[in-house]
Design brief:
heterotrimer, A mainly alpha (250), B alpha/beta (206), C mainly alpha (220), A: 250 residues, mainly alpha, 7 helices, B: 206 residues, alpha/beta, 5-stranded parallel beta sheet, 5 helices, 10 strands
């Protein structure tokens, strides 16, 4: 049998926990700096936009949030597939750890989208393709969390892992069709659409957006890894309660 | 009565190699090695929760074992703890349906003939919902008396809800099946009144 | 192949008899749709023009919700009494077993809707209910296929029905969007029907396989 790839050793808690333990302070640091600097630049330094006034500033939250929400779902589906194929515990732990963060950013996308749109359309919500898709994504996340918690039994997370993984995969495969159908539906009914284009981007705006984006990404990764560490610890501890071999139980 | 295909008694009908199974994070059993030959009866024993049903499910291919491999040489018949009884079907419909679902359909007269040893031939038209637990269990077991039966039988607690006379008839049927070259794996809390020698596999704490 | 055919026929027969002998199973979705259709004028006002305009979409929504009703009992009883394990052991490809079961289920709950909904549409003053019927003819099987997958996922979950709705509604959006566009008639109806048909074909190919993989994992 050939030697497994060296990266595989990170699948074991003995390596995963120390590695992430070292990475996390760095990530939190980057998150804090990035978000603070980005928001400061965006909220206070960047000039008022010619067309959209003050409200465009909400994009500093909305754009990164939307991306992170989508990528988190893709990552969940990736780890779901990995877990089903190779049955490593860490894959399922990462999959589950991504869900709450993804939900947070999906909801943030909705809220910021609504806040951005209110001054423009006069209503708190409009059923355009992007916002509706974001709402569906949020529902997919909530569904995942609901399913895994409904299937889990105390002491046995295996069924919840599998059901959740299958749901994440089915959802991920459905997403392209979902986006397509929603945007098709939108063009059918000539709805309003939000697209934050129009004016040229001032340098402060751009820097602010970039810094905020990096900061939010770092936050997302840090949050996910922190949660993953906790869950992995908990699973390892639960396993230690059962005898590893039957002889020792006699 | 004929077996679907008889193996020479030197070829095992079932092989388990270092089979292990866990439920969630709890280890049930490990390193189970076994070769069962035609004509042999195997009694899987162990306390409640020791994984007897799980072992049977691994043998049938319903669950994948956490470790080890299972080789089944021929087709098998599984009568589990919950044997797939549908309340809305009548006794004879249930019997014929189970047989057909397993790919071994039987005629109405063959089904009636199989219901006689279990004492249900005059209840053949009754819906299962109207029967007692013992009668329902006997409906599930009636498959064993059909003309076409596979060589390997896997039975989970076949004595449940049966009286002594029925247990005796079941044991006779199992003995005859083994004489004809078939093999049986079963779990049971009580001993079956079998005449042929019975191998034993004990799961759980040694 | 004889054994597989016998097993398939036995499965279809068993499912059919089971549903037929429990009238509540297939009457309930129909009664539900009629009941919901009754709520529309009561809730929205009896103005004929508005009802005529909204009817196809509303009936589609009613059909979608009705399809969710019988799902919790699709696989759960089979798991509970052990019949799921019997088909798993049958000499029948598992995706085919799933597809057969869903087909019988659709035959009793989806197909009657295809016939009932246009009648209701006429009651709402819709002149031509044929687009609605066609869209439901393609749409209800798609809903059944997705529903089967959802039912398999929640097999071990506590509190089935609400959870099922939460899981399935996002997944059923494409069916709803294409279906209602086709049902409303007009210039986009043809392309909507084509899209719906294409999506149904994809689901027919993938959903039974995904559902049987899910059931295998849930049985383990």
């Amino acid at each position: 049998m050939s030697k497994p790839h060296p990266l595989w050793r990170y699948a074991s808690p003995a390596h995963f926990l120390p590695l992430t333990g070292r990475l996390l302070p760095l990530l939190w640091g980057v998150a804090a700096v990035g978000i603070a600097a980005g928001l400061w630049l965006g909220l206070f330094v960047a000039p008022v936009d010619a067309q959209q006034g003050e409200t465009y500033r909400i994009l500093y939250l909305h754009v990164p949030a939307a991306w992170i929400a989508m990528v988190c779902y893709g990552a969940m589906a990736f780890w779901a597939l990995w877990g089903l194929a190779w049955k490593t515990r860490l894959a399922f732990v990462l999959m589950r750890a991504l869900a709450p963060t993804g939900t947070l950013f999906a909801v943030l996308t909705l809220v910021t989208g609504s806040l951005w749109g209110k001054p423009m359309w006069g209503t708190w919500w409009v059923w355009d393709a992007r916002l509706t898709s974001a709402l569906l994504l949020a529902l997919l996340y909530v569904g995942f969390i609901a399913l895994t918690s409904a299937v889990d039994t105390p002491g046995d997370r295996q069924r919840g892992d599998r059901a959740g993984a299958l749901l994440a995969l089915v959802g991920a495969l459905n997403l392209p069709v979902l986006y397509f159908s929603v945007s098709w539906w939108n063009t059918l009914h000539q709805g309003a659409s939000i697209s934050p284009r129009g004016s040229a981007i001032a340098p402060e705006m751009l820097w602010g957006l970039l810094l905020a984006t990096v900061g939010f990404w770092a936050y997302a990764v840090a949050a996910v890894l922190t949660r993953a560490r906790q869950q992995l610890q908990a699973r390892v501890e639960r396993e230690a309660l059962w005898p590893r071999s039957l002889e020792s139980a006699a | 009565m004929s077996l679907a295909s008889a193996l020479p008694s030197t070829t095992p009908s079932l092989i388990l190699q270092r089979v292990g199974q866990s439920r969630g994070e709890r280890l049930l059993f490990e390193d189970v090695d076994l070769a069962l030959h035609p004509g042999q009866l195997l009694w899987v024993e162990g306390a409640n929760g020791s994984g007897k049903t799980s072992l049977l499910r691994v043998i049938c291919g319903l669950s994948a074992p956490r470790a080890g491999r299972v080789h089944v040489a021929q087709s098998l018949l599984y009568v589990g703890h919950k044997p797939g009884l549908k309340d809305q079907l009548s006794v004879i419909e249930q019997l014929r349906s189970s047989a057909a679902l397993a790919g071994r359909p039987c005629t109405e007269s063959e089904a009636l003939a199989a219901l006689a040893p279990v004492g249900l031939d005059d209840a053949a038209g009754l819906r299962l919902a109207q029967l007692s637990e013992g009668q329902r269990r006997r409906t599930a077991l009636a498959q064993l008396w059909l003309p076409q039966v596979p060589p390997l039988w896997v039975l989970d607690e076949p004595l449940a809800a049966l009286d002594a006379a029925m247990a005796e008839r079941l044991a006779q049927r199992l003995d005859r099946h083994a004489e004809e070259g078939g093999s049986v794996v079963f779990t049971s809390h009580q001993a079956l009144p079998l005449r042929r020698p019975v191998r034993s596999l004990r799961l759980g704490k040694h | 192949m004889g054994a597989a055919y016998q097993a398939a026929a036995a499965l279809a027969r068993r499912e059919g008899l089971g549903v037929l002998r429990q009238p509540a199973e297939w009457l309930t979705p129909l009664a539900f749709v009629v009941g919901v259709a009754l709520m529309f004028p009561l809730g929205l006002g009896p103005e004929p023009a508005r009802l005529r305009e909204l009817a196809p979409g509303l009936l589609w929504i009613a059909a979608l919700l009705a399809s969710l009703l019988s799902l919790p009992r699709l696989f759960a009883p089979d798991l509970a009494d052990g019949s799921l394990e019997q088909w798993w052991l049958a000499p029948l490809p598992r995706p085919l077993a799933v597809a057969l079961k869903l087909a019988v289920h659709w035959g009793f709950s989806g197909l009657p809707l295809v016939l009932l909904a246009p009648v209701l549409a006429l009651a709402f003053g819709v002149d031509d209910p044929l687009p609605l019927a066609l869209s439901l003819l393609l749409g209800t099987p798609a809903l059944a296929l997705l529903g089967g997958l959802g039912a398999a996922l929640v097999l071990h979950a506590r509190a089935g029905a609400g959870l099922l709705a939460l899981l399935l509604l996002p997944l059923e959006v494409p069916v709803l969007v294409f279906g209602t566009a086709a049902a409303n008639g007009g210039p986009n109806a043809d392309s909507a029907l084509l899209l719906l048909g294409a999506w149904l074909a994809v689901l027919l190919a993938l959903a039974p396989w995904a559902t049987s993989a899910t059931l295998s994992l849930m049985l383990d």
